Amino acid sequence: MNKLEDRYPRTIDCKGHAVELQVAPSLETEELQAFTAALPEKDLLFLSRDIREPKVLQAWSNSLESGDIVTISAHRDGQIIGTTAVVTDKHSWSAHVGELRILVHPEARDIGLGRELIQESFLIGLSLGLEKLTVRMTLDQEAAINVLEEMGFRTEALFRDHLKDPSGEKHDLLIMSHDVAGVSGMMQAYGIDEAI
User: What is the pLDDT of residues 84-93, one digit of tens each?
Assistant: First the structure.
């Protein structure tokens, strides 16, 4: 984790927007609650739990302290505009796998922040010694799926009618993955290999 601590906080340029990336030490803040409240409900369906619930934020914070989740938050003008989290389970049969969870505020889309957060997730995964990264998406998140595919993620599974929103409508769940062994070449292609 020392490499991550040395890397953050830092400021990146997203199409002319200065965005500061920070390691999130805790998630029980008004700033994060404002961020999650601004996210469209359909953007939250791929998560296993509703992060707008205080108990879920508390559990997320507890996982930060235990090291099961590493979260980077993106800030602009004093507000969170995006987060990326790498979730691991050291006690499971899949301890070598990390799950990415990327969220971007609706007003911060189309500035390349999602791609930047995916790149940061690769760095986190490499620093944790992970061998595989997975991500869950709903099929209507086409822009995010396109970016993930451009960065080397491939579809592993599609679960039909796997999610049900509060109105009762069902949604398909897509699971994509990327082998970390192939990340180094991808990082060189994107010019971020020197960050490690």
Answer: 989 898 889 9
